[in-house]
Structure formats: structure tokens, C-alpha cells
Predict the 3D structure of the following.
Amino acid sequence: MIGDKYVIGLTGNIATGKSVVRQMLQHLGAYTIDADNLSHQAMAPGAPAYAPVVEMFGRIVLDDDLTVNRAMLGMIVFNSPRALGKLEAIVHPVVRQAAVSLATRARQPVVVIEAIKLLESPLVKLCDTIWVVHATQDTQIRRLVEKRRMTEEEARKRIALQSPQGDKLARANIVIANDASVEDTWRQVQIAWGGVQRAAGPAAVAAAREVARPVTAPLSDTRKTSPLAGGGTPQLNLTVRRGMPGNADQIAAFVSRMQGRPTDRMTVMLAFGQKSYLLAHDERGRLVGVAGWQVENLITRVDELYADPAVPRDQVIEALAAAIEEASRELQSEVAFVLLPATSPRDVAESLRNTGYGPLRIEEIRFPAWREAARELLSADGLGLMKQLRADRVLKPI
């Protein structure tokens, strides 16, 4: 228990689909924390675990830019239980402190803490219930081969190095079976969420309703003073709502039309395991804009942004950007990164610039976590933009 929060501890072995379930719980109104990624941040230059890790394992674990090479560190600790124990003794207390800080600040009454070694860490004492995501070993191997480009032998070795999944299942309050379709996993999560709402009380029910409410997008000062007569652009009456898996067909049809190539429902359903969607409707209820975005490690990433050219596109983009920022602040995000594909209409980028987004230049980003996220985003072709969402760093005290 953390204060008045109801805390779900979410775990499961590699490639069982923990992150998919965590994202689904965020769709339903929970505040979610990826503890494994917090451990990466804890070892960033200047963070509390950085110097102790370098002192313990030597400069061999550093890259040329003096950041910790996690692959090198992993090779050391995963082949030595003693070395792994020393690393965890350094990192776990920092991660626990960071998780408590994030959960305490969250407005949401339900908090999810995801960690592969949750049950072996101090985080387990914070949890009111334990959820375990389960998949068969064949499914794990297939996912590691297809998504992480491992050989079957490498996948089997990686699975064997982890604590038995059966140990996790034995301590589970809720088990989510994640071998079948995304729809099946979503159904299980929704059913289990009903139990969470009953356990957490009225505040959790209210939070779930809050997720579904329309987002009121504030107008820019320029838009407020724009003339609506004598050739001026009429002001749209837009409503922005969070998309749900039930909207997958509608999203797929709209994205297909905007891209000029087919996108099927299953592609959108799979994307729901990684990101959220916001849908903009006009006063007649027509879908005129879609944004695909996610918040991970206090960083917002937007990799889909579409507006119907049949309506004033700048108004749609501004409304979606405002809604993304409002939802991001609810999740304590510090910065927003946007990647626009090279084929994106020029006025989309211009509309974002009018709302405060500037060029994304990695060399000008001061914070390691932000730089890493920016590099990942810009690995694809396109135009990168960014906007800082808050003046303070949420985890700076940590």
C-alpha cells in the first residue's frame, strides 16, 4: 500500500506480455510504472546508482559517452548470481524510492507497478494484489524469435536463466493468460479490472469515468482572435476522446484513408498493446483526427498524427496536441516527442510549431533518458519535434 493508493503488482517472465497488460490497465484509468525501465534511469550518469555500479563493475561497463552499457552489464550479471545480487542491492532501493515518489504524486487511485523480478524485490511489499501474465514457453520462444530477433537456442537460454514462471503463478491473485488474441487478453483485463474497482472503492470507478470523458482542448491566442467572417476560417466544434480497442475498426478505416494504403483492424488492436489513441470528432460526430501516443518513463512519444484534409487541419492538430499534453501531464510526463513521417503534410508540422513544438535536436538534449528516447524515436525516417511539458524534473530529487 502506498498512501491511499490501491497498488497492482504486475509480473511475469520474459515475452509473456506484461507491458501489453500494463498498457491496457492505463487505458482503463490506472497510473502505471515500469520498474525495469526505472532501473535503467537509476544507472544514468548523475543518477544515484551510476557511481556505485561503475565502482562495483569497473569502467568496462561504460560506453564511449560514459553511459552504462546495459548489454555488457547484462552479460556479466546474468552469468553470475553473485554479481546479479550485488547489482540488485545497488539498484533496488533507488527504484523503490522512485516508484513510491511517482505513485504518491499520481492523481489516479489505482497504481500498477510492472517488474519482471517484482516478487524478489522490495517493491512487492508495496502491492495490494499480484497479477501474473502467463504464456506458454512455445509462445515465449516465438515472440523472442520474431520480435527480438533471437535464435531459438538464445531464446531458450534466456528463459532458462529466469526464475520459474510457476513460482510467480503460485503467488498470483490474478492470472492473465496471454497466448491467444489481443481481444481475449483485453477481455480478461476488463473482467479483472472490475474486481480492482470494487476493492479500491468509489475513487477507482470515478477515475475510470474520467478516462472516458471528452477532453476540452484550449485554443491558442492566435485562434481566439482570428476573424470568422470576411474570409476567415470557421471554428470547428471538436470533441477529443480516448480511443478504446472497441474503436479499432473505425481507427483502421480512418488511418487507411489518410495514408492511402490499407491498415487492418488487427494492426490497430496490436498497437493498443503499445500505445493509446485519441480521436477527434466534429459537431456532426464525424471522425476528423487520430493521434497514436504513449507515455513511458515520464516521456511522451507521438508516432501517429492524422487530420482529415476536408476540414481545417490546423484546428484538428491543435486540439489533438492539447489533448495529448493534458493526458500526458496526468501521467506526470516531462517532455513530448513527435515523429512525423516524411510524407506528412507540411501544415501538420506548422500547426505543431504554432502550439510550442520545436525541432528535435538530440545534441541539444541535456538529460540522458530524454536523449535515449529521442534516439529511439528518430531511428525511423521523418521529422522530429519536441516540447517540454513541465519545468521541474519529476524524479530529480531521486
